[in-house]
Amino acid sequence: MARPTSYKPEYADQARKLAELGATDRETAEFFKVAESTVYLWKHTQPEFSEALKTGKQSADERVIQSLYRRALGYSHDAVKIMTAEGQVVRENYVEHYPPDTTAMIFWLKNRRPDEWRDKTEQHNTHEFSQEAAAWLGLAKNS
Fold first, then answer.
1. Residues ≥6 apart with Cβ < 8 Å to 109
2. What DSSP element (H or E) covers 34?
3. Which residues, including other chains, have CB under 8 Å from residue 96's CB and lie 6 or more apart?
4. What is the C-alpha separation between 78 and 112, in angstroms, rounded?
5. How far apart are CA 131 and CA 128, in angstroms?
6. Of residues 103, 96, 39, 115, the one with CA closest to residue 71
7. Alpha carbon distance 67, 34 (integer Å)
8. pLDDT at 88
9. Of 56, 66, 45, 44, nearest to 15 (Cα)?
């Protein structure tokens, strides 16, 4: 007889929240104090749990995609600098600017347009083999 599952319906919402925070399946298992294989079992036997993990991971991935995109193009945001002047706390509003990042651009393009941006290595073999070497390598032409 199979052992009863320790799964509870409220785990689905907790798993979604963990995935939105970037938790891996291993970290999710640690949170629920179960083996990682148990999380895999729950994904197969509990559709709401599986869907919650997918939804949470998609949400986290979308935030990373947006961050990579913004980093590639450069962006600005409002910020506050807090300092002391003459014994008084002074708050100074300013705009923080991050210039476009070449590495983020390359990463984006290599993944979005691999046919145009992948690292290509072309090899041209111009070495001629003797008949004996070609035969040994299995490259001899049958005459």
1. 116, 117
2. none
3. 76, 77, 78, 79
4. 30
5. 9
6. 103
7. 33
8. 94
9. 56
Angstrom CA distances, 36 to 18, 22, 46, 83, 104, stand at 15, 16, 15, 48, 33
| Cβ partners under 8 Å of residue 55, min gap 6 | 16, 19
**Structure tokens belonging to residue 13:** 């919402």
Specify the amino acid at residue 105.
M
Q: Predicted confidence band at 131 (pLDDT cuts at 50, 70, 90)?
A: confident
Could you give the angle at which helices 47-73 and 36-45 cross, rounded to 10 degrees?
110
Q: Which tens digits make up the pLDDT trace of 15-42?
A: 999 999 999 999 999 999 999 999 999 9
The token pair at 113 is 């347009």
Question: What's the gap between Cα 104 and its chain centre?
Answer: 13
Query: How far is Cα 102 from Cα 79, in angstroms, rounded to an integer?
Result: 24
Confidence band (pLDDT; 50, 70, 90) for 138?
A: confident
Distance CA 30, CA 22 (A): 14
* pLDDT tier for residue 64 given thresholds of 50, 70 and 90: very high
Tokens of 121: 């290595």
Amino acid sitting at position 117: W
